[in-house]
Amino acid sequence: MRRRLSSLATSVTIVLLVLLVGFDSHNVQAKSAAGGRVLVLLDNETDKALYSQFFKSLEDRQYTLSYKTASDPKVELFAFEERAFDHVINFAPKTKNYDNKVNPAALINFVNKGGNILLAASTELSETIRDFAREFDIEFDDRETSVIDHFNYDESDSDGKHTLLVLDDKKGGFSNNSIILSKETLEGPPVLYKGIGHKIGTIPLLTRIAWITSDTAYSYETKDGQVADQDPFIFGNEISLVSVLQARNNARVAFVGSLELFQDRYPKSGNQALIDDLIKWTFQEKGVLRVTSRRHHQEGEIEPLETYRIKDHIVYSIEISEYVDDKWHPFNGTDVQLEVIMLDPYIRRTLTPLEIQPEGHQYSRIFETHLQLPDVYGVFKFKVNYKRPGYSYIVDSVTVAVRPFRHNEYPRFILSAYPYYASAASMSVGFLVFSAVWIFNKDTSAKKEDKKNN
Amino acid sequence: MSSVKPAIDKLLKSYNKETPQNLKLIDAYLAFILVSGILQFVYVILVGTYPYNAFLAGFISTVGQFVLAAGLRIQTNPNNSGQFKTISPERY
Question: What residue intervals traverse the membrane (chain B) (predicted)?
């Protein structure tokens, strides 16, 4: 009896604990679809104060920030082969020697396991960080260089080197990708940028967010008395300032050539809006899609089949949600396509977004199409391969078998085939009649032959 | 043209006179098969190949019959009797 009571007490405790933990984790959930654990890497512990506004905005959105110096030997990205953080902010461009487990190779591994990285560089950029960026097809200019424009700098730039650039060409110099950059950013005040430039490669996973549009800008060293006697590495339109990459596993990496952008220095500029958009996108607070279900069945049926017949009329539908403002909402795209693939796509069809039913759930939208399977049998995939810059990628496929007609499923007694039926029948009848005539005719003709031969 | 007509006349005359009656019987049967095969071919060109298997069945049955009947004609032709010595008497 006592044992039973004690076991009851244990189970009650467990239930309570689970409830507590459940509530607790719900309370501290960050506004990201990927989780709220952030590792902040700094050159020095004291640098933290420079970005107080920025870090406060993250904490306001329920992120848990762990500040570490990049050379701290104890910091680890992984615990038991699992990511210990969901996001990494690397504000430590100066640190050369990573004698620990957050070196570039580990950061790349982190991305491969789905973690997001925000990397801010500066003029004092170590070779380790440049190596890391090269892995993503991004080439930062050399150490000690800055983006300079003698015709388009901000007045408050007092050192006379003209490195504080005014990015006021919001139409030309910023990505028009409305998933990453919000309207407020594009219509707000100019962005003030002071830092290093980079050149992006050709891989399609990269998206340029901000770049130079003025032809007079170039990237060069800014020592006192520096004479520009060699061609700059990049100039004019080639200079990218902010670029982002979404890896194939939907991990996001942002490269910013300026640490100053995140500092509290330029309160009236459009910097705040830009980095807000950037951090929201990079930390998966927006532009995140997910598939909640997919269905396929014959027209007029409900149950999906493992095997369809060639030329069957079927209905395919997929439900997609988009993560907006902390919640899953119906996705509003109009260009989701279905491919019916057996090595090659046999059918490629744009799916029709359906209206949200008031009595149904409100977090996703159904995309549907009615189609007739091709006149080819084999193993097919119903594949939705939706990859748009800014949105997380959707690759969703279902495998079904498509069988040929059974022998009794072919049409019979086709009107236009009657001549052939008549011919085949007349050949059979003709054979019998001819055989009969031949047999009974044989004697007389043979006699004739005999007579002739005789 | 003037030389063709006597040639045809001669051919018909000699056919009627020289060809044994059982071979004429086969020839009539062959002509029937040939006509029905040609008709089907013309039909498939006009109407299209839709019941293609039915066309193949009908057409190939005429071809098969034609081959069989032509074979019989060759074997039973007294002119070829030297080549077919082992043929059973039932076929005559």
Answer: 26-46, 52-72
